[in-house]
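The record is passed on directly below:
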Amino acid sequence: MADYLLEMRGIVKAFSGVKALNGIDLRVRPGECVGLCGENGAGKSTLMKVLSAVYPYGDWEGSIHWDGQELRARGVRETETAGIVIIHQELMLVPHLSVTENVFLGNEITTRLGTLDYAAMHRRAAELMAELKMPHVNVARPVAQYGGGHQQLIEIAKALNKRARLLILDEPTSSLTKAETAILLDIIRDLKRKGVACVMISHKLDEIEAVCDTITVIRDGRHIGTRPMGELTVDQIITMMVGREITELFPREAHEIGEVVFEARHVTCHDIDNPMRKRVDDVSFSLRHGEILGVAGLVGAGRTEMAMAIFGSYPGRHGLELRLDGQPLRVRSPQEAVEAGICLVPEDRKRHGIVPLMGVGYNITLSVLQHYARLGLIDEAAELKAIEEMIARLHIKTASPLLAIRGLSGGNQQKAVLAKMLLARPRVLILDEPTRGVDVGAKYEIYKLMMALVKEGVAILMISSELPELLGVSDRVLVSGEGRLRGDFINDGLSQETVMAAAIGQIAEAA
């Protein structure tokens, strides 16, 4: 029996001559959880695609040893058969199929007659749900009827059904609540006790610290170091990741806050599936020149729906009054919002922020393409100049502006979405979870950019589920709960406890 279940030695992977990985080593023992850390674009996902044979043997240099034997997998089916299973950040479930059908997709149990043995599959799926502390889940119901936290655990059930000996978790908690995250971390601990090895990719270093035994850090495609978690602090991990100390994670800078520039009054959004229910219930607020107004609230508080209504993109029945510079403003579509100077960086960049197969540069200019049109033709030179300026300004890591944006890391995709909105020269910029799935170095860059924008007079409305982030950068914080506004606090000594008390409907005392 080998000491290590997995050994990746000197892995090199290049794209068009550019090395995305340059000599990476990774080792994992049975029952060990290794945290794979690095900034967006460092090569973490590329390394896992090499391991899981998305990039098959022959497409890369180096060697992979699995349970003491060299592994030369030509496809994902081979690595899954060996016991290496990856759970991607974007869940790979079929919403309208049942829990059981998703768990057994591609690995169905059949009867002697060749028909699907649903009874056996339902039994096994129910056993897996119980093992993952979800015995209440009805495995015959469609996956779409369960929330994001349940779906994440269903993905793990699917992996365990494939007899996973090594589980790769790519940002597993990015869409989970705090309670769901705690359950998932407990499940990882249980899997470790049963001898299942894990590689966990996460930008939430407190979670890495909670469950990982060993930390491997890569930066710009190179192996920076591997050390036991017990020998490291979170600050030391950050220094290894970014190559410098970030002594102040939230770079607040003095900036002047002017008069009220934007008002939203009586924002009301009805649930799409149940119009009798209000997702946002008569919310009103104002926003000033050069102000960062944070919006806090628990899941289901209606923050995203409010942002979509303001931007003209909420698909359900809704009503609101908007005023810009004291004048009534009517917004019936995102195009009208952008033309008025109201821009939105959406919560779900994959669905609402990018066109995956389109080039990075063309994604950036998509919202202002008319600016480069002359007599019905695009001035390609002017468009390319704007693209290159934005890529440089936001430090977007891409081999080429023509590269399909889906090939970029999540953080660099987010920067491209930001670039797209900045080209529209916003007066009011709405940021919905702007740093979700973004590493600590890229977060710092986004915060610095926000500070630069408010110094120019841009008004920012930032929705975030991370209270330290809201308190770290906001001038004022709105708190919403169950669709209603429950607090409006100046961020001067404001505490997380005060914000949470307001969010759950308790009487909040001044901080």
